[in-house]
Automatic annotation (TrEMBL):
Source species taxonomy: Eukaryota, Metazoa, Chordata, Craniata, Vertebrata
Record-stated family: Belongs to the major facilitator superfamily. Proton-dependent oligopeptide transporter (POT/PTR) (TC 2.A.17) family.
A cellular component annotation (GO) from this entry: membrane
Key words of the record: Membrane, Peptide transport, Protein transport, Symport, Transmembrane, Transmembrane helix, Transport
Source organism superkingdom: Eukaryota
Presence of the UniProt keyword Translocase in the record: no
Annotated protein name in UniProt: Solute carrier family 15 member 1a
Start and end residues of each stretch annotated as Disordered: 626-665
Main location: membrane
Organism expressing this protein natively: Xiphophorus couchianus
Length: 665
């Protein structure tokens, strides 16, 4: 029974579209700031932050299979969406609470004191989110499709286009807004970066998503669970393997295909459909490597952006996690351009640009994106500070007097006014420093693996101080000093004891640049985002289209599950490669991943060259006709055999009568 319509569309789909927009905003908004939350709030190093990030993404693409099985076998799509959305919302709230630093900030310094509490709560939240977002992923679009009748094919197609637009719209807006919220300062007792708000808004959107979906409850067309095809396929394949193993001896004749060993228990049509699906699934084996590179735009590339300059025209400042916004913008631009201009132009040139060739090119283009990232990283590395190793110490000199002095140490000589421009690196833990003329010499003991500053007083015979940090408190009075800090910069300010408060007091303050601000501009990441998105359009969009065109009618969900698994495995590969390689330089890791994808694309192209494109619908129809003809032949043979049996019975009966007559006589 279909419910009331507006402009030919069921009213219920409007609730589903709003639900999807809010849910995608919630997911991508939380994910946009996640790796920075790990690094700067939980204080994890880059490798651990990236490992947990990709583990989370991998689980988000594993759980859709579980959601599909629950929906098709037990709860139905509607109840699955409701229950798992509640789990999802609880997970988002847990993430928002885990980012409130005031809960454990007992010393009021703006950072949490009990990190264990925040880590445990955030991990629970991420587990619930992975279960929720993955569980409802296969259900929402299919549930929306169920709302249309057989006479509404055009409206159904339009719905899926709008549905895809909502996914990208939610992703685009959230990756713009949540980094802005994160960059704000908030707190009850002390201020720090507002991760709680950046997670809180997605949590609120998830709650809105759930409420909107429930509001349409009375208008939905709800199908009953009919069993999950993935379970049926898995059982059939399992039985074929098991049966083949039982009959492995030579006394049993070989069969044309190993799936034919399932004929004793399963329908021949199902076996034929599984054979067709397996041809496509075999091609999926090399595909995880693409996702290995693609999903690093939310981890490695975001961390790369933190070492770059985000100051654009005038007063526009782009946050590192906002650079991910380029992907959905380019997706909305490149998909129509590729479909209506690039691909038709290639076809007119007489090139047979098949779907599998498009996917191969997409992989190579994605590899080029990582080559770009490596080139940018090389430029960044030139500007980054070199910190002392475990066997080294670093020292900077700060002249606290008003007159220039001469500083001599080892084979170096400085004419020093204020602070030295850079840190000097020493292999020994003790050096001799001579200052002034006549010179005053003293031995200075250094701490390994640390940066220190030697404070030289105006009277060089006074005590010299070796410090790591310089703090000066001015009491209740204040002196206004203005300074524009660059991204990634670190500064020390020397406030003399002779400071006189007043309108010109800032002139007495000396500035020392400990770490220079980032000088490589964030805009240089745009080419690598363009390439990775172009690769996505050729690989992902084409791959889904190819899979659906080559899949039997009842196997499309099986291939969808296989496609999601390639994404999940790709994220696990990030962890494995990074752990095994342990490369000291980040640019070398980018080159490694690019090389692996090029190698995989070559393997994939070889596999694709042996693939023959088919029309599954025609094959199914032909197979059904053949089965039907075989059944008719069997019926004819059965009828003939029954007729022969009747004739034999008749002859036998006649002979018996004659014998009886003879006996009587």
């Amino acid at each position: 029974v279909l419910h009331s319509e507006v402009f030919g569309y069921p009213i219920s789909i409007f609730f589903i579209i709003v639900n999807e927009f809010c849910e995608r905003f919630s997911y991508y908004g939380m994910r946009a700031v996640l790796v920075l939350y790990f690094k700067y709030f939980l204080r994890w190093d880059d490798d651990l932050a990236i490992s947990i990030y990709h583990t989370f993404v991998a689980f988000c693409y594993l759980t859709p299979i579980l959601g599909a099985i629950i929906a098709d076998s037990w709860l139905g799509k509607f109840n699955t969406i409701i229950y798992l959305s509640i789990v999802y919302a609880i997970g988002q709230v847990a993430m928002a609470v885990s980012a409130i630093h005031d809960i454990t900030d007992s010393d009021r310094d703006g950072s949490p004191d009990n990190l264990t509490f925040h880590i445990v709560l955030s991990m629970v939240g991420l587990l619930l989110i992975a279960l929720g977002t993955g569980g409802i992923k296969p259900c929402v679009a299919a549930f929306g499709g169920d709302q249309f009748g057989e006479h509404q094919d055009k409206q159904r197609r339009t719905f899926f286009s709008v549905f895809y637009l909502c996914i990208n719209g939610g992703s685009l807006l959230s990756t713009i807004i949540t980094p802005i919220l994160r960059a704000q300062n908030c707190g009850i007792y002390s201020k720090s970066k507002c991760y709680s708000l950046a997670f809180g808004v997605p949590a609120a959107l998830m709650a809105v998503s759930l409420v909107v979906f429930i509001m349409g409850s009375g208008m939905y067309y709800k199908t009953k669970p009919e069993g999950n095809i993935m379970l049926k396929v898995s059982k059939c394949i399992g039985f074929a393997i098991k049966n083949r193993y039982r009959h492995k001896s030579k006394q049993y004749p070989k069969r044309e295909h190993w799936m034919d060993w399932a004929e004793e228990k399963y329908d021949k049509l199902l076996i034929a459909q599984i054979k067709i699906a397996l041809r496509v699934l075999v091609l999926y084996i090399p595909l995880p490597m693409f996702w290995t590179l693609f999903d690093q735009k939310g981890s490695r590339w975001t961390l790369q952006a933190t070492t770059m300059d985000g100051n654009f025209v005038r007063s526009i400042v782009i946050q590192p996690d906002q650079m991910q916004t380029i992907n959905p913008i380019l997706i909305l631009t490149l998909v129509p351009v590729m479909d209506s201009l690039v691909f038709p132009l290639i076809k007119k040139c007489g090139l047979n640009f098949t779907p599998l060739k498009k996917m191969t090119v997409g992989m190579i283009v994605a590899a080029l994106a990582f080559v770009c990232a490596a080139v940018i990283q090389l430029q960044i590395d030139k500007t980054l500070p070199v910190f002392p190793s475990a066997s080294q110490s670093q020292l900077k000199f700060l002249n606290m007097g008003n007159t220039p002095i001469t500083v001599q140490f080892q084979e170096n000589q400085l004419n020093l006014t204020g602070a030295s421009e850079e840190y000097f690196t020493f292999e020994s833990d003790q050096i001799t420093v001579s200052i002034g003329n006549p010179s005053v010499s003293r031995d200075v003991s250094l701490t390994k693996e640390q940066r220190q500053t030697l404070l030289i007083p105006s009277a060089i015979n006074d005590d010299w101080q070796l410090v790591r940090d310089l703090h000066k408190i001015l009491g209740s009075q204040s002196c206004e000093y203005s300074k524009d800090f660059g991204f990634g910069g670190s500064y020390t300010f020397f406030i003399p004891s002779t400071l006189t408060l007043g309108p010109n007091c800032h002139e007495s303050i000396t500035e020392s640049v400990d770490i220079k601000p980032n000088s490589v501009h964030m805009a240089l990441q745009i080419p690598q985002y363009f390439l990775i998105t172009a690769g996505e359009v050729m690989f992902s969009v084409t791959g889904l289209e190819f899979s659906y065109s080559q899949a039997p009618s009842n196997m499309k969900s099986v291939l969808q599950a296989g496609w999601l698994l390639t994404n999940s495995f790709g994220n696990f590969i990030v962890l494995i490669v990074a752990e095994i390689a342990k490369l000291p330089k980040q640019w070398t890791e980018y080159i490694l991943f690019a090389s692996l994808l090029v190698a995989v694309s070559i393997i994939f192209s070889i596999m694709a060259s042996f693939y023959t494109y088919i029309d599954p619908t025609a094959i199914e129809a032909e197979f059904k006709k053949k089965l039907h003809d075989d059944e008719d032949d069997k019926k004819e043979e059965l009828q003939k055999s029954e007729f022969k049996m009747e004739k034999r019975d008749s002859v036998s009966s006649d002979n018996g009568d004659k014998k009886h007559v003879q006996t009587s006589m």
